[in-house]
Amino acid sequence: MSSIGFIGLGTMGTRMAKRLLDSGHALTVWNRTRSRAEPLAEAGASVAATPAEAARAGEFVITMVTDPAALRAVAEGDTGVLAGLRPGSVLIDMSTVGPAAVRELEPRIPAGTGFVDAPVLGSISEAEAGTLRIFVGGEEELFLRVRPVLEVLGDPLHVGGLGTGAAAKLIANSTLFAVIAALGEAIALGETLGLSRDKVFEVLAATPLAAQAERRRSALEQDSYPPRFKLSLARKDAELLVEAAKGAGVDLRLAEAARSWLADAERAGLGDLDYSACSGSSRRLWL
């Protein structure tokens, strides 16, 4: 078993850290709000006073934070992760921050320390079950070294050099956001043109959206969206992928449209709900 420093105990991070702890790894955790670490401490984890202290305790150091600004905040300064990384350790950033944030951090990694980006695809249930899909960018040698740790959390896929993990996550999310926006628009169009809700779903059952329509039907009909993937985080991810596309000179019109629906839904006060609330929001705006 390995020693692991884990920084960032949000909804996903807490569950991932618990799996690592339950699997027998020696875990040292840090979170900006210390109370989030208390259940893990009761289960046997050590709680660090700073990100640097958590990093210093680990052969592997995992960061799982909200966005590029949060990654910079935990990485920088005398008490940041970079200050605590010890020679021979590997930093694994599992946040969804986009390739630009990974490239920004890369030259600041101390010599003799490894660095991979490994964002995850999946939500609460997958984090609890250890069935996340993990996209890993970095040297092959480092991937082989971190794979046993990541396999506790899910299925790691090596996609290329540093930064490609972050890119792969944006690719995956681009499909999620396009589907959820298309679903909302299709339902709104059907009801506006006079079809009943039942008939709209019968029509959707004959389309490529059939599985997603059936999966989301109950939430849409009840207008209830318990958060598995918070809409505010989805909007952040959509901004990242649109920004990455612009930087690469790629015209992603569907991504921009999906981003606009998510942004509108967040402005409507739905940010703390599941991102599928975007579909309900688009329906309400049309009707």
Describe this structure in words.
The chain has 287 residues and is an alpha/beta fold. It has helices at 11-22, 38-42, 51-56, 68-75, 81-84, 98-105, 124-129, 140-150, 164-192, 197-204, 210-222, 231-248, 253-270, 277-286; strands spanning 3-7, 26-30, 46-47, 60-63, 90-93, 114-117, 120-121, 132-137, 154-160. The strands form 2 sheets. A 6-stranded parallel β-sheet has the order 3-2-1-4-5-6. A 3-stranded mixed β-sheet has the order 7-8-9. Helix 9 (164-192) packs parallel to helix 14 (277-286), helix 12 (231-248) packs antiparallel against helix 13 (253-270) and helix 13 crosses helix 14 (277-286). The radius of gyration is 20 Å and the shape is elongated. The mean pLDDT is 94.
